[in-house]
Write a structure and sequence with these properties.
1 helix; 116 residues; elongated; mainly beta
C-alpha cells in the first residue's frame, strides 16, 4: 500500500527521521494544486533533495473530512493549504454541499503510506 503521497517529501524524509516527522529535516514546504512539495536534508546533514507528495494518491474526502485512505483515495472537492510545515488544512465539501474545515498532520502518516 505505497501511496505516492508523491512527495518523496514524506516518503524519503519520514523513513529517515526516527520520529517519522518529515518536518524535522524539511523546509520550504508548500502546497500547490494537489501536491505538497518540500526541500529536505538526509539525516546526518548530507546532500539535500526536493520531494513531492501527491495527495490524490493517499487522502480521501469522506463526508467533508480528510482521511488517510491509500487503498481507495478520493481527494476531491477540497481547498487546502499548509500550516506549520506539516499540517494540511482544508475545507472539503460534505454530501450536502457545505464546505467543512478539516485538517491532517502529514507528520503522523503511517510510514508505509509515504513511500513512492
Amino acid at each position: 500500500m505505497h501511496i505516492t503521497v508523491v512527495l518523496s517529501l514524506l516518503a524519503a524524509a519520514a523513513v529517515q527521521v526516527a520520529a517519522k516527522d518529515f518536518s524535522a529535516t524539511c523546509f520550504d514546504t508548500y502546497y500547490e494544486s494537489t501536491t505538497v512539495t518540500s526541500s529536505c536534508f538526509r539525516t546526518g546533514g548530507d546532500s539535500g533533495y526536493t520531494t513531492r507528495l501527491d495527495m490524490t494518491k493517499c487522502l480521501a474526502n469522506v463526508g467533508g473530512k480528510l482521511v488517510c485512505r491509500p487503498s481507495n483515495p478520493s481527494f476531491k472537492y477540497c481547498d487546502c493549504g499548509i500550516a506549520d510545515k506539516k499540517i494540511l488544512n482544508c475545507r472539503c465539501t460534505d454530501p450536502k454541499g457545505v464546505k467543512q474545515p478539516t485538517s491532517i498532520d502529514l507528520g503522523n502518516f503511517p510510514e508505509e503510506n509515504l513511500a513512492l
